[in-house]
Specification:
Aspartate Aminotransferase, domain 2, single chain, three-stranded antiparallel sheet, about 425 residues, seven-stranded mixed sheet, 13 helices, binds pyridoxal-5'-phosphate, Aspartate Aminotransferase, domain 1, globular, alpha/beta
Length: about 425
Amino acid sequence: MVGTTSESGPALAHEAAPRLLSGSMKRPIYLDNNATTRIDPAVLAAMMPYLTEEFGNAASSSHLYGWQAAEAVETGRNQVARLIGGAAREIVFTSGATESNNLALKGAARAFQGKGRHLVSCATEHKAVLDTLKSLEAEGFESTVLPVDPDGLIDLDHLRYAIRSDTILVSIMAANNEIGVLQPMEEIGRICREKDVLFHSDAVQAAGKIPVDVDRWQVDLASLTAHKVYGPKGVGALYVRQRDRRIRIAPLIDGGGHERGMRSGTLNVPGIVGMGAAFHVAGAGLPEEACRIQGLRVLLWNMIRSGLKDVILNGSLEHRLPGNLNISVPNVEGESLVAALRDVAVSSSSACSSASMEPSHVLTALGLSTPLAFRALRFGIGRFNTESEIEHVGELLVRKVLELRAASPLYSKS
Ligand SMILES: *Cc1c(COP(=O)(O)O)cnc(C)c1O
């Protein structure tokens, strides 16, 4: 497809691509699908026309280029809305879920400060929520961060007690990015309605992996991103409830008034087309794919725990995303284990905080000791993983841990 419209430009890309893709180095098995996912070929195919001939600005209302771009954006908006049980007019496109979380929390706090200045969230949230709360505290807002139990779940009575008369919003994620734990969304939604506070959820890891229904959950705001669902990076959305209650939030970015004034800036048409296609593909295959991926997760977990009796599972097994496995391996040096597993792309702690030397805030919130938090491995199984890959990784992990322990004077007796 590339190269059909231009003689000179794409030729360069053709020359560069094989060298990038066919090096002699064998690429590691990718098991880090909670950090990001490979773009689905059908998604890329849907995007290509909008990176080439269909280059119009969706806000250009006086010619065909603009109309076609606007139509593609509306298709994407419908596809995103459909996966989560919302309406197209409730979708505000953003640059990703970090922006969506910022927009939800800052936008609601600033718009509703007449009601109060208090927000409620929980300790295992993504940094895009926790750091936004800190930033709001500097503006004079207050927040209550709920603890979680050793399984990673919040206590609904804690939530009830935390909501005050001046509480504006509760933000609780649907599925955790490190440990895959699923919070009880329907119950949280019911409590928020009873207490008449807004309910925001970071639903990034849930969308396309488990059924998401904004009405059943009674969420008012929900953050989404394309690149965790086999779509492109740099595009996301915020669901903003409009049908039964019209939520108005303050924008973070002012300008041309795009996205009903909630997010100005020329729309990322190819990105939005890709996000729509990715959400459509995910919705069409959801039950079968979730079942297959959960089967691979069960296989991996069974191999690991039958080979290594002392391995610790982090987070609830029952209330968990199908493809996530997060374990701590005691009596082995974390760094040596990561080095021994260099043929496997897994996350040791969260990809988002592994640059810092702090243990994961999610694992410490479960009550894990710092050494065990540093010995955690996150496996994120996804659409493109096969059973033979999982068998290979399970066998390799068990063998390497036993070898490292045998070689270490500290652990050789265990
Ligand atoms: C990846 C992720 C984000 C951030 O999304 P970006 O689109 O990368 O900014 C937010 N929340 C959760 C739970 C995530 O997994």
